[in-house]
Design goal:
Blueprint lengths: L14 E3 L6 E3 L1 E4 L10 H13 L4 E3 L10 H12 L9 E6 L14 H15 L4 E6 L8 H13 L3 E7 L3 H14 L3 E5 L13 H8 L2 E2 L38 H17 L3 H10 L7 E3 L4 H8 L9 H11 L2
Parallel strand pairs: 3-4, 3-10, 4-5, 5-6, 6-7, 7-8, 8-9
Antiparallel strand pairs: 1-2
Helix pairs in contact: 3-4, 4-5, 5-6, 7-10
Bound molecules: NADP nicotinamide-adenine-dinucleotide phosphate.
Length: 330
Amino acid sequence: MTYIASANRYQTMQYRRCGNSGIKLPAISLGLWHNFGHVDVADNYRKILHLAFDSGITHFDLANNYGPPPGSAEENFGKILKEDFRDYRDELIISSKAGYTMWPGPYGDWGSKKYLVASLDQSLKRMGLDYVDIFYHHRPDPNTPLEETMAALDLIVRQGKALYVGISNYPAELASKAIKILKELGTPCLIHQPKYSMFERWVEGGLLNVLGNEGVGCIPFSPLAQGLLTDKYLHGIPEDSRAARPTGFLQKAHITDERLSQIRDLSSLAVQRGQSLAQMALAWILKDERVTSVLIGASRPEQLSDSLKAPDNIQFSAEELARIEEILAP
Ligand SMILES: NC(=O)c1ccc[n+]([C@@H]2O[C@H](COP(=O)([O-])OP(=O)(O)OC[C@H]3O[C@@H](n4cnc5c(N)ncnc54)[C@H](OP(=O)(O)O)[C@@H]3O)[C@@H](O)[C@H]2O)c1
């Protein structure tokens, strides 16, 4: 059946300006790292994408290596773009990245100009696009001059293959240098994509200040700590959960008694606020104005529906904030 986007799609989502740029992003953005590969069920991820766009999510985040197998999330997204979202391309902000291993040999990884330019060409082909809206360098490369990597991002924009560029996983000091180089090249850094959640707070030690001062946007990934910051692990490890899969970065060993006790206490606080734990965890990140959007994942539409309500209440009382600090204290 032909997909027609909901006429109400812009009525409830909040849009937040990305740093000092002209771009606004939805408070909630959707990432396709997991659940959109060839190993996943097409009917399910198609439903998730429809629900997302119908709810005002205009930003979809990909990378060359998302799948599995690597590249398959871009292929599947490209198919749905062509079949369902063809008429809506100008309403979408689509991002991709390169920085992790993608093909064999010395040119399929890290941060050389050779790798970044070739990888984006491959991503565009897989998605059937002329350009992406944002192209990121996915992780710092200690062995390539930062100037070369940033010059590659600048080149890609001048070639018309990306409208904006970003960096991901760069620590504060390196981010600061990258932002300066890009500014000098005339291609300002639009956004940084760091890992940030209640359980992973390294960005508070300086990166958020750098981004705030430089007028660069911030889109935290894994804001639900891959599902830990939800109620799903409170009564064991569900068979269909990310932690139950043999591969991946969330392992059963991460779900310790201490973690479960924190999750239980956070969940009680969320209930008092009239939110689910997932909603509170996202709201807690969105309370910081330097954050543009939270980049979530979802393995089914119901999870997305739950997370979408997070921006309804991003106010926290001093008591609530203190209680959260108390729960999170080591
Ligand atoms: N730049 C980078 O290096 C980098 C690295 C990682 C991710 N990312 C980006 O960030 C995106 C999000 O990462 P993520 O998937 O780890 O984010 P996340 O939002 O922290 O975790 C998503 C997972 O949490 C569970 N979940 C989500 N909402 C839920 C809800 N309301 N109730 C119960 N469970 C819920 C689901 O797990 P189950 O599958 O168990 O159901 C879902 O797959 C990625 O898709 C990617 O675009 C970037």
